[in-house]
Write a structure and sequence with these properties.
Layout lengths: L1 H12 L6 E6 L2 E4 L1 H12 L3 H14 L4 E9 L2 E8 L25 E3 L2 E3 L4 H8 L2 E8 L3 E9 L14 E5 L2 E5 L4 H11 L5 E5 L1 H11 L30 H10 L6 H8 L9 H6 L5 E2 L2 E5 L2 E3 L2 H21 L2 E3 L4 E4 L4 E4 L2 E3 L2
Helix pairs in contact: 2-4, 3-4, 3-5, 6-8, 7-8
Length: 353
Amino acid sequence: MESDLLTFVSSFEGGDGLRVEESLGGGFVRLRVSEAERRQAKHDIRCVEDAVIELLRNARDAGARHIFVSTSREGDLRTVCVVDDGAGIPQNMHRRVFDARVTSKLDTMRMDKWGVHGRGMALYSIAQNAVEARVVQSDVGLGTALTTTFDVSDIVERADQSTWPTVERTGSGYEVRGPRNVLRACVEFSLEAEGLCNVYVGSASEAVAAMRARMDRPLVDAGWVYPDDLAAIPLAQRAVIARDARELAGIAGSLGLEMSERTAHRIVKRQIAAPKNVRAKLLGTSAARVAGKPGHAGRQLSLSREDRDEFLERLEQDFAWLAQRYYVVPNGRPRLRVGKESIRVTFDFVDDE
């Protein structure tokens, strides 16, 4: 009788509205796969910081070298927008990437400090816990801009979201201390992904300022017209080519980073500082300085940690261009050696098979 009833209801609802696949008696049931996935997804994301980690892992696994994170809160709503320069998402998949078990990583499931990634459940889990989760813009080869909004009265976040953690080098890596907020999530991910990608975090205006300062200028011909030709330019590079505040505000808004033209004008005039990547920000300067200036300590050139990181970051961008042309893949971060009369940089790579 119970089986007949389940079949009857299922025939009207197409199975989608029915949580139970089979009644086993004694109060036991077998859940439908969709209901089991929904419950697991609600469990996977327990706080906003968990969602941020999943968004960062997705960008990393899409091959992003630069990830820009903007976060803001109004009342109980926390919004996190992530823009990356990864592989991008085809337009016909913008909605479907939030479905359960949808993934582009059929043969590349990855294990990191947060567990297995590549099951096709990260964005689904985020969508199940968010007020809104959507791909703002993306296409193949152009990177991705994705925004999420959470009700923090429903899914918690750390009360202190303004304090940066501290980072200390240890014999086995790094020790991170501080409140387990969004900033710390970004820092811990960045340290884990060292050599793979750089993470920049701040307000919407700071994220756009970072794009203008850290991304290469795309090649455009003399007849380039805004906004007609914008669609062919990678998302994270679009801020670089904005010629004035009006264009910059329009580009930022199209990426989910809404701002006024006045704020955009401050970015153009460099009145809003571009944040460094979080590793460079927190690892600080440990090299010798003479007379308040970086440089020689005796006859040995000594570079600050901050300058070394930024120098290597720029070289990584240039090598990525070369690697793409000659079908090789960077194998770890470049190594830098400073001598008395030379600076040597070594790039390891493997064939892109």
